[in-house]
Amino acid sequence: MSDEFEIEVKRFYVPNEFTIECPKCGGDVCVPNGYLSYPTANVVFDYTPYCGSEWKDENGEWTGCDHEWKIKARLNLSFELIEDE
Ligand SMILES: [Zn+2]
């Protein structure tokens, strides 16, 4: 495992994401949703997913979940030299 270090990038887009279930409404939430801001690599950190799911209630009015919670995540990053074969 590489040492932790701060990445001085305002919008760091990661190449993969996960779909997790909102604990309040059961809707799908993408993590990370877009990018990480100034992440620290190779260390476990708190990530705050946000659920913006919307649906019509029994009166036909739009209502939203608007829920945040905390999960653990880690951005693994290291530099590697590749020998010519
Ligand atoms: Zn939700």
Characteristic key phrases:
binds zinc ion, mainly beta
How much of the sequence lies in strands comes to 35-45%
Radius of gyration: 18 Å
What is the number of strand segments?
12
The averaged pLDDT comes out at 94
Bound molecules: zinc ion
- Helical run tally: 0
- How would you classify the helix and strand content by structural class? mainly beta
Q: For the largest sheet, list the strands in their spatial order.
A: 1-6
Strand and helix layout:
Elements: E1 5-6, E2 12-13, E3 18-21, E4 28-31, E5 35-36, E6 40-41, E7 44-47, E8 50-51, E9 54-56, E10 62-64, E11 67-68, E12 71-74
Antiparallel strand pairs: 1-6, 2-5, 3-4, 7-12, 8-11, 9-10
The protein binds zinc ion (ZN).
Q: What does it look like?
A:
- Helices cover 0% and strands 40% of the residues.
- It has no helices and 12 strands.
- It has strands spanning 5-6, 12-13, 18-21, 28-31, 35-36, 40-41, 44-47, 50-51, 54-56, 62-64, 67-68, 71-74.
- Residues 22, 24-25, 27, 51, 53, 65, 67 line the site of zinc ion.
